[in-house]
Specification:
The structure is a single chain. This protein is mainly beta. The protein has one domain. Strands 2-1-3-4-5 form a 5-stranded antiparallel β-sheet, with helices on one face. A two-stranded antiparallel ribbon has the order 6-7. Strand 3 and strand 4 form a beta hairpin. The longest helix is centred in the middle third of the chain and has 13 residues. The radius of gyration is 12 Å and the shape is globular. The two termini are 16 Å apart.
């Protein structure tokens, strides 16, 4: 998993079948651009995406055929059935 050195960066973790990958947006990407990328990844087969916005302390969760779920200041996020048992602690990120 790649975490940005710059606290203004947005982070995204994407699970894709059959593999998973991590994507870090660059600081010059706007939130809107990053959200558009997340939607594009979802529409192209990503089965789970997290957009972690350190500034607003929000996590946007992207899943196929669903509206984006927004969590405010969660302490963890789960990979659900994509990587069973994997839970990302966000305490050190905030």
């Amino acid at each position: 998993m790649i975490f940005g050195e710059n606290p203004r960066e947005f982070l995204a973790l994407l699970g894709e079948r059959p593999c998973s990958k991590t994507v870090r947006s660059i600081a010059s990407d706007s939130l809107k651009e990053t959200q558009d990328k997340m939607k594009e990844y979802r529409d192209n087969g990503a089965v789970l995406g997290w957009l972690i916005n350190r500034k607003s302390r929000q996590v946007e969760i992207y899943r196929p055929n669903q509206e984006v779920e927004i969590l405010q200041s969660p302490t963890t996020v789960s990979s659900e059935d994509i990587l069973p048992g994997f839970v990302l602690s966000l305490e050190s990120i905030w």
